[in-house]
Design a protein that fits this description.
It contains ten helices and 15 strands. The protein is an alpha/beta fold and 263 residues long. The protein has two domains: 66 residues, Orthogonal Bundle (Arc Repressor Mutant, subunit A), CATH 1.10.10.10; 184 residues, Rossmann fold. The protein is elongated. The two termini are 34 Å apart.
């Protein structure tokens, strides 16, 4: 098989898994023969796909088919609690992300705890312009360092960020070199997700205004899906993480031109 055909095969397999997930979400219980008809593939291919979803914890095989595995609703912890989780990984990711920032750039800092770790490394970077919707990041940089622009909007107390449609009025007037984004979950099927629709709105708007999107996410975010869609994974230019990604994610990043940096 030629390299081109190999890549095409991987793309088709990923698309088929996404369609299989969608069918499971809608029907919960599926039969192999029904999937063969819906996906236009052989029973052997369906069984391999179901084995893969079972391995990922997304489905459970039963005689003649499979059932969806219902995941518990994700309860977002408070900001201070999140900051205290995996602090070593977050600091390593932040230091690696720092290497991506030029001397005179305009950057955006999102409201995640990993992005806050990056903000703390920028206190002496007075050549930068930092745009942020994060009260915590703004507090870190209020005394010295980059020129600081704080986005207005509705305060989301849980994340200490300004979010929602009101953020549009300022963001649409700005051009951002790099947006450093956080996320609660990353999924090949659902992209980036968060628990609040207003926060998701602002995240997507920021990514539209940025020349490059840099996603800071530790390995524990992979495979997590929460309430609100906050952008396609294909919109990310660079993913900075703390450990090797699962093979399917590595292939997706390679096929979509996403640079993966492991701290």
């Amino acid at each position: 098989m030629t390299p081109t055909r190999t890549i095409k095969h991987k793309e088709l397999a990923a698309e088929r898994l996404d369609r299989l997930r969608a069918i499971l979400r809608e029907t919960t219980v599926v039969r192999v023969d029904e999937l063969c008809e819906a996906l236009e593939v052989s029973p052997a291919t369906v069984r391999r796909d179901l084995e893969e979803l079972e391995r990922r914890g997304e489905a459970r095989r039963v005689h003649g088919g499979a059932v969806a595995v219902k995941k518990k609703r994700y309860e977002e912890p408070g900001f201070d609690d999140k900051t205290a989780i995996a602090t070593g990984q977050k600091e390593r990711i932040a230091r690696k992300a720092l290497e991506l920032i030029g001397s005179r750039e305009t950057i955006y800092l999102d409201g995640g705890s990993t992005v806050l770790a990056l903000a703390r490394l920028l206190r002496d970077r007075d050549g930068l312009t930092v745009v942020t919707n994060s009260l915590r990041a703004a507090s870190e940089l209020a005394g010295s360092g980059p020129q600081l622009i704080l986005i207005g909007g509705e305060l989301r107390r849980l994340s200490q960020t300004m979010v929602g449609p009101l953020t549009r009025f300022m963001l649409e007037e700005l051009h951002i070199d790099r947006a450093f984004m956080g996320t609660i979950g990353i999924s090949l099927a659902e992209g980036m997700t968060t628990t609040d629709a207003g926060e998701a709105y602002t995240k997507e708007l920021v990514m539209q205004r940025a020349r490059e999107v840099v996603l800071l996410a530790d390995r524990g975010k992979v495979g997590v899906v929460t309430f609100a869609h906050a952008g396609k994974l294909s919109e990310v230019g660079t993913l900075v993480t703390d450990d090797a990604l699962p093979e399917a994610y590595e292939e997706y990043c390679q096929d979509n031109g996403i640079q993966v940096v492991v701290a």
